[in-house]
Amino acid sequence: VGNSSVLFCTGKPNVTMITWKISPKAGGPCALSYRADENKTDRTNCSDSINWKFRPDQNPTLEIRQVGIAHEGNYACEVVVTDGNFPETYHLTVLVPPRLTLYCDDRGNPVCEAAAGKPVAQVSWVQGSNFTLEEEHHDNGTVTVLSRLPAYSTNVTNTTCIVSHPAGNQSKSMAC
Protein backbone atom coordinates (compact mmCIF):
# COMPACT_ATOMS: atom_id res chain seq x y z
CA VAL A 1 0.00 0.00 0.00
CA GLY A 2 1.25 3.49 -0.84
CA ASN A 3 3.85 2.35 -3.37
CA SER A 4 3.64 2.17 -7.16
CA SER A 5 2.95 -1.12 -8.90
CA VAL A 6 3.89 -1.91 -12.49
CA LEU A 7 2.16 -4.63 -14.52
CA PHE A 8 3.87 -5.78 -17.70
CA CYS A 9 2.08 -6.76 -20.88
CA THR A 10 4.11 -8.53 -23.54
CA GLY A 11 4.68 -6.24 -26.49
CA LYS A 12 4.41 -7.59 -30.04
CA PRO A 13 5.40 -6.12 -33.40
CA ASN A 14 2.68 -4.68 -35.65
CA VAL A 15 0.13 -4.11 -32.88
CA THR A 16 -3.43 -3.38 -33.96
CA MET A 17 -4.85 -2.74 -30.50
CA ILE A 18 -3.93 -3.02 -26.81
CA THR A 19 -6.50 -3.09 -24.00
CA TRP A 20 -6.17 -3.19 -20.22
CA LYS A 21 -9.42 -4.25 -18.52
CA ILE A 22 -9.41 -3.68 -14.77
CA SER A 23 -11.92 -5.23 -12.36
CA PRO A 24 -11.18 -4.02 -8.85
CA LYS A 25 -12.78 -5.60 -5.78
CA ALA A 26 -14.16 -2.18 -4.81
CA GLY A 27 -15.72 0.23 -7.29
CA GLY A 28 -16.56 -0.30 -10.93
CA PRO A 29 -14.45 -1.62 -13.77
CA CYS A 30 -12.20 0.58 -15.88
CA ALA A 31 -10.33 0.19 -19.17
CA LEU A 32 -7.38 1.70 -21.01
CA SER A 33 -7.08 1.09 -24.73
CA TYR A 34 -4.83 1.97 -27.63
CA ARG A 35 -5.69 1.76 -31.35
CA ALA A 36 -2.69 1.79 -33.65
CA ASP A 37 -4.61 2.71 -36.83
CA GLU A 38 -5.67 6.01 -35.22
CA ASN A 39 -2.65 6.31 -32.86
CA LYS A 40 -5.24 7.01 -30.17
CA THR A 41 -5.52 6.11 -26.49
CA ASP A 42 -8.78 6.02 -24.55
CA ARG A 43 -9.68 5.57 -20.90
CA THR A 44 -13.02 4.59 -19.42
CA ASN A 45 -13.78 5.06 -15.70
CA CYS A 46 -10.13 4.83 -14.59
CA SER A 47 -8.82 6.98 -11.77
CA ASP A 48 -5.81 9.22 -12.37
CA SER A 49 -3.65 6.78 -10.41
CA ILE A 50 -3.97 4.13 -13.17
CA ASN A 51 -2.26 4.90 -16.47
CA TRP A 52 0.16 3.77 -19.15
CA LYS A 53 3.72 3.85 -17.84
CA PHE A 54 5.13 4.59 -21.31
CA ARG A 55 3.67 5.30 -24.73
CA PRO A 56 1.47 2.23 -25.39
CA ASP A 57 2.67 1.87 -28.98
CA GLN A 58 6.21 1.33 -27.64
CA ASN A 59 5.51 -0.50 -24.35
CA PRO A 60 2.04 -1.53 -23.07
CA THR A 61 3.05 -1.50 -19.38
CA LEU A 62 0.46 -0.33 -16.82
CA GLU A 63 1.40 1.74 -13.76
CA ILE A 64 -0.68 2.11 -10.59
CA ARG A 65 0.56 5.01 -8.45
CA GLN A 66 -0.11 5.22 -4.70
CA VAL A 67 -1.58 1.71 -4.53
CA GLY A 68 -4.47 1.36 -2.09
CA ILE A 69 -6.70 -1.48 -0.98
CA ALA A 70 -9.30 -0.35 -3.55
CA HIS A 71 -6.85 -1.26 -6.34
CA GLU A 72 -7.02 -4.98 -5.48
CA GLY A 73 -8.54 -7.09 -8.21
CA ASN A 74 -8.00 -8.48 -11.68
CA TYR A 75 -5.97 -6.73 -14.38
CA ALA A 76 -6.20 -8.19 -17.89
CA CYS A 77 -4.10 -7.02 -20.82
CA GLU A 78 -4.83 -8.07 -24.38
CA VAL A 79 -2.53 -7.36 -27.31
CA VAL A 80 -4.13 -7.73 -30.73
CA VAL A 81 -1.88 -8.33 -33.75
CA THR A 82 -2.48 -9.82 -37.19
CA ASP A 83 -1.41 -13.25 -35.85
CA GLY A 84 -4.10 -13.23 -33.14
CA ASN A 85 -4.88 -12.06 -29.63
CA PHE A 86 -2.44 -12.45 -26.75
CA PRO A 87 -4.08 -12.10 -23.30
CA GLU A 88 -2.31 -11.85 -19.93
CA THR A 89 -4.05 -11.65 -16.56
CA TYR A 90 -2.82 -10.52 -13.15
CA HIS A 91 -4.50 -10.65 -9.77
CA LEU A 92 -3.28 -7.75 -7.63
CA THR A 93 -3.21 -8.32 -3.87
CA VAL A 94 -2.35 -5.35 -1.68
CA LEU A 95 -0.32 -5.86 1.50
CA VAL A 96 -0.90 -3.44 4.39
CA PRO A 97 1.76 -3.52 7.13
CA PRO A 98 0.25 -3.40 10.62
CA ARG A 99 1.03 -0.57 13.05
CA LEU A 100 2.78 -2.09 16.08
CA THR A 101 2.04 -0.79 19.58
CA LEU A 102 3.25 -2.28 22.84
CA TYR A 103 1.86 -1.08 26.18
CA CYS A 104 1.02 -2.21 29.71
CA ASP A 105 -2.61 -2.68 30.72
CA ASP A 106 -4.01 -1.62 34.12
CA ARG A 107 -3.02 -5.02 35.62
CA GLY A 108 0.61 -4.76 34.53
CA ASN A 109 0.23 -7.19 31.62
CA PRO A 110 2.14 -6.44 28.40
CA VAL A 111 -0.24 -5.92 25.47
CA CYS A 112 0.93 -6.08 21.87
CA GLU A 113 -1.28 -4.61 19.15
CA ALA A 114 -0.72 -5.15 15.44
CA ALA A 115 -3.29 -2.71 14.05
CA ALA A 116 -4.97 -2.72 10.64
CA GLY A 117 -2.76 -5.20 8.78
CA LYS A 118 -3.61 -7.14 5.64
CA PRO A 119 -3.34 -10.11 5.69
CA VAL A 120 -3.62 -10.95 9.40
CA ALA A 121 -0.36 -10.44 11.29
CA GLN A 122 1.11 -13.23 13.43
CA VAL A 123 1.92 -12.10 16.98
CA SER A 124 4.22 -13.93 19.39
CA TRP A 125 6.35 -13.21 22.44
CA VAL A 126 10.03 -13.95 23.09
CA GLN A 127 9.28 -14.63 26.77
CA GLY A 128 6.25 -16.73 27.66
CA SER A 129 3.92 -18.85 25.61
CA ASN A 130 0.74 -18.48 27.68
CA PHE A 131 -0.63 -15.46 25.80
CA THR A 132 -4.07 -14.61 24.44
CA LEU A 133 -4.95 -13.45 20.92
CA GLU A 134 -7.97 -11.44 19.76
CA GLU A 135 -8.75 -10.39 16.19
CA GLU A 136 -10.88 -7.45 15.09
CA HIS A 137 -11.86 -7.48 11.40
CA HIS A 138 -12.41 -4.08 9.76
CA ASP A 139 -14.70 -3.22 6.84
CA ASN A 140 -11.75 -2.33 4.58
CA GLY A 141 -10.32 -5.88 4.80
CA THR A 142 -7.65 -5.15 7.39
CA VAL A 143 -7.38 -6.95 10.74
CA THR A 144 -6.16 -5.79 14.16
CA VAL A 145 -4.56 -8.46 16.36
CA LEU A 146 -4.36 -7.87 20.11
CA SER A 147 -2.16 -10.15 22.24
CA ARG A 148 -1.91 -10.05 26.01
CA LEU A 149 0.87 -11.76 27.97
CA PRO A 150 -0.19 -12.40 31.58
CA ALA A 151 2.44 -10.96 33.94
CA TYR A 152 2.45 -14.15 36.02
CA SER A 153 3.44 -16.28 32.99
CA THR A 154 6.96 -14.91 32.91
CA ASN A 155 9.43 -13.87 35.58
CA VAL A 156 11.31 -11.64 33.13
CA THR A 157 10.62 -7.93 33.57
CA ASN A 158 11.46 -6.91 29.98
CA THR A 159 9.20 -8.52 27.37
CA THR A 160 9.48 -8.53 23.58
CA CYS A 161 6.57 -8.75 21.16
CA ILE A 162 7.26 -10.04 17.63
CA VAL A 163 4.93 -9.31 14.72
CA SER A 164 5.41 -11.38 11.58
CA HIS A 165 3.83 -10.11 8.36
CA PRO A 166 4.50 -10.50 4.60
CA ALA A 167 5.06 -6.72 4.38
CA GLY A 168 7.84 -6.94 6.99
CA ASN A 169 8.54 -8.17 10.51
CA GLN A 170 8.67 -5.90 13.55
CA SER A 171 9.42 -6.21 17.26
CA LYS A 172 9.22 -4.01 20.36
CA SER A 173 10.36 -4.50 23.94
CA MET A 174 9.32 -2.94 27.23
CA ALA A 175 8.98 -3.59 30.93
CA CYS A 176 5.63 -3.37 32.69
UniProtKB/TrEMBL annotation:
Protein name: MOR1A protein
UniProt domain Ig-like: residue ranges: 60-175
Protein's organism: Psophia crepitans (common trumpeter)
Pfam family, one: V-set
Family from the record: Belongs to the CD200R family.
SUPFAM superfamilies per record: Immunoglobulin
GO process annotations (BP): regulation of neuroinflammatory response
UniProt xrefs under InterPro entries: CD200R, Ig-like_dom, Ig-like_dom_sf, Ig-like_fold, Ig_V-set
Keyword check for Transmembrane helix: yes
Keyword flag Disulfide bond: yes
A GO cellular component entry from the record: external side of plasma membrane
Main location: membrane
